[in-house]
Amino acid sequence: MKPYSARASSVEGVSTRPAGRPARSKKGGPPAGTSDIIRHRLHPRIWEKVIHTLLFLCASLSIFTTAGIIYVLIFETVGFFREVSPLKFFFDTQWTPLFAEKHFGIWPLVCGTFLTSIIAMLVAMPIGILSAVYLSEYSPERVRRVLKPALEVLAGIPTVVYGYFALLFITPLLQKLIPPMSGFNALSPGIVMGVMILPIVSSLSEDAMYAVPQSLREGAYALGARKLHVSFLVVVPAALSGITAAFLLGVSRAIGETMIVAIAAGQQPRFTLNPLVPIETMTAYIVQVSLGDTPHGTLEYHTIFVVGMMLFVSTFALNIISHWLRRRYREAYV
Amino acid sequence: MKKAHWREWAFQVVALMAMVFTIGVLITLIVDVCIDGIPRLGWQFLTSFPSRKPAEAGILAALVGSAGVVALTALFAFPLGVGAAIYLEEYAPKNWLSQIIEVNIANLAGVPSIIYGLLGLEIFVRAMRMERSLLAGGATMALLVLPMIIISSREAIRAVPPSIREASYALGATRWKTIRHQVLPLALPGILTGTILALSRAIGEAAPLITIGALTYVAFLPDSPLSPFTALPIQIFNWTSRPQKGFLTDAAAGIVVLLIVLLCMNAIAIWLRNRYQRKHY
Fold first, then answer.
1. Is residue A5 over pLDDT 70?
2. Which of A2, A158, B25, B40 is most exposed, with minimal Cβ within 10 Å?
3. Which chain B residue's Cα is nearest to A304?
4. Tell me, what CATH number does A324's domain have?
């Protein structure tokens, strides 16, 4: 009985060394450092408790961050709706809070965000899925080891750099192909954003395809299917929830992306789906107001939080659904 | 039979071309920026303050500002992130609270960076009265990179084999002693790699700093954590949005510097990972 209980107590983390004894003897040995003195004055069990509490506080900071975000956004949104009626916010089609004649219809900003995100997804989705299928089903290990990190580099480039590239390289290039295009537009930042999002879409889709059990592929081969058919008629459908998750996360990134659109899309909120004219996204509006010197507590100041609220709610919803879908395929196959 | 073969072949060509296109965009981007920017680089560019004349402008204030923000970010985010990771891996009981913390961290990693800017503006700049200082910038960035540091640190801690913990417990070590002397040293290279990558993200971010009100024209060096500042991506953004051609060249040169800094940080991270990966277990 006795050996067992001794073992159990040490596993639970209670030192078997006599509690009061200092680590080093008073005579001879090197003097104990300050931290050693503190540590050994405290009973080990208390010291463990202190550490435990400190670490718990670190972990709970994330909860406070989320709570802080929600509190700040709700607080300022309420302040905004005290001055502007929600009817105007949701049904007006003009957004001009910085002009003399103020309109507060959110739709132009939503429209701009939607437009750039759609263009980005039209670029990221086909290329992302193609490369995911290729990397997970076809590519030899050697090719994969080169291509995958090369794609990842795209995700590491700062977004101001993409913005510069969209404004000064892609836009002039597109203007040669489509002459009536304006210097600021939704198309060019949309395309560049698609390239930026691609690694996320491709690596998440690939993970999902990787999780499809080998037996499904072997079953299809046994029925005489070719590799292309196995890839697109068996693996892709089986990984569909994961691919959808990748799509949703990509959209969420596109909606929240700021610097590319702030640089290359112009700053003119416009209720249009024309990709060739200047527009403004929700994120670009926040940047525009932040660059000016907007005093705290004014209506303009409130507007950036209202727009932030829209942004937070939409990306949050997309992230949650995406998270849930990814968990589902993990449960289904693992 | 022949047709199917043809399709297999065509698919591989199309897929490879799609990826070559993407990597081609990456190469074009880098080459384009280098052609525009490298002739502008020089000692003068690195050691001058911004100016109204493009040819005299430089990135000294931006470089120092970026370094200050990243140092403060690391100071805040590293201990907090590693602490949270240790808690979640080594201490957290399997209950609803741990579950919530875990899901919450995953969600925070997906919140757009500009939202963190709004949070920092209201909490650090207004409520805590830090004004538009380096300190406010560092604190905001710390919240932004915290989820990334937690996620990568957890992976590093999880990779330490349980046998090492059990051996330590068997010798009578307490939980914290086991973590402090056995788990952390083994997990440290992985934790550092993740932290460096997270910090390199912080260096490239402009949106949250613009939102908390970082300046775009700073002709002095920040002398304390409470002084106003600008950062490299903000300076680049500012030059990109000017009409004069000279400033666009400055922007390109700034981008080259930014990319070199990021390249160095990533190289250090990869070196750390490769160096320590094989040493243990």
1. no
2. A2
3. B118
4. 1.10.3720.10
